[in-house]
Amino acid sequence: MSSFTHIANDIPKSLISADLPRGQKSLKWSGIVPGIVLVAMITGVAFSARNVSGFALFSPMITAVVAGMIYSNVLGTPAHAKAGIAFSQRRLLRFAIVLLGFQLTLGQMVSIGAYGVSIVAATLGATFVFTITLGRLIGVDAKLAQLIAAGTSVCGASAIVATNIVTDARDEDVTYAVASITLFGTVAMLGFPLMAPMLGLDQHAFGLWAGASIHEVAQVIGAGFQNGTQSGEIATVAKLTRVAMLAPMVITLGLMARRKSSGQSAAQPPMPWFVAAFVAVVALNSLVTMPAEMKSAMALATTIMLTMGLAAMGLQADISQLRSRGLRPLALAFSAFLFIGCFSLMLVKFA
Fold it and tell me: What is the pLDDT of residues 149-164, one digit of tens each?
């Protein structure tokens, strides 16, 4: 019952008809169409940009954030589009996180062995704690630090989006976190393969290192396959294992937020109902073999919805607010990037 209540709370109040009897509220779909169309147009631009030289390095999600920010800060976001933008940012993102489960199976985690899973888990946990602790020490806002910690330790933009559902940070914080994670993830994607020979890493070791430390799934794949097919396959599985750990991380953050708020006000933070659905989808995908065509379609749908959600965030981001955050969050993201790279490398080589 709480899940349905939470879903209802995601809907902007302006979309709910007050004329209907109590308990029979419905969406005014005509009110959200203009915003969805605007978000879809930016999403189309983001996907098309992959065909432009230089943009192929970036996922459509990242391009969509930047395009949305440029549009809103140069042209301005129309008032009549705000309801649809809010719908894309909330409802579509939650549904996309659920569909992300169709890209994971328990068998994939088993394929890298207990050794590989333990390295991934230890790296994720240590990086998250390090980033949160350092953020507190250098004075970075706690919610922004959590977003940077999630993006670095788990799976980039997708983890930032999922984490923000329970942390409820400002849109500018989400945009800042995504931008910093993209910057350092790209550095890792380009630089790590060049370092493999100097570090004495074979294909298996390098794949495990890349999968355990590089931020975005696309960046992991790009770096892994530069070092060979075996390296790419291991890197992909290790990264998907990190993605699977998104669920317990978000649940933990949700419980922490609920405990903290219980002593401050009667309002309760949103519980991550979508995480339960995500886990259920992973279990279903592990038990039932889906046709390759359906899996491909699910993956595309997930990417499109994640891209639309991040485009919506970009449309609501104020560049002046981003500048006001200063360089401390960027320094935090850089420190987290160094920590996850060094810590996971140490485990791969010496554990």
Answer: 999 998 887 788 888 8
Amino acid making up residue 277: A
- The single residue listed with the structure tokens 């038990």 is 287
**Tokens found for residue 262:** 């219980």
pTM summary value: 0.68
Euclidean distance between CA atoms 209 and 226, whole angstroms? 14
Beta-bridge partners for 27: 16
Q: Which residue has the tokens 């639309």?
A: 308
Q: In this structure, is the dihedral angle defined by the CA atoms of residues 143, 176, 48 and 241, taken in order, positive or negative?
A: negative
Contact 77, 257 (CB under 8 A): no
Burial class (CB in 10 A: 0-12, 13-18, 19+), 8: exposed
Phi and psi at residue 27, to the nearest 5°: -75, 140
Whole-number Å distance between alpha carbons of 96 and 300: 10
Residue whose entry in the numeric block shows the structure tokens 């894309």: 88
Structure tokens at 119: 């390295």
| C-alpha dist (Å) from residue 208 to 96, 100, 105, 182, 204 | 27, 21, 18, 20, 6
Q: How far apart are CA 4 and CA 228, in angstroms?
A: 47
Cβ atoms 17, 26 nearer than 8 A: yes
Q: What is the DSSP string of 110-175?
A: HHTHHHHHHHHHHHHHHHHHHHHHHHHHHT--HHHHHHHHHIIIIIHHHHHHHHHHHH---HHHHH
Q: Which residues contact 302 (CB under 8 A, 6 or more apart)?
A: 96, 99, 100, 102, 103
Task: Name the burial class of residue 55, with classes exposed (0-12), middle (13-18) and buried (19+) by CB atoms within 10 angstroms of its CB.
Answer: middle
Contact 330, 138 (CB under 8 A): no
Rg (CA), the chain: 20
User: DSSP label at 24?
Assistant: -
What is the SS3 assignment for 16? Answer: strand
Alpha carbon 179 to its chain centroid, in Å, reads 12
- Summarised one tens digit per residue, pLDDT across range 188-223 is 887 898 899 999 999 999 999 999 999 887 778 778
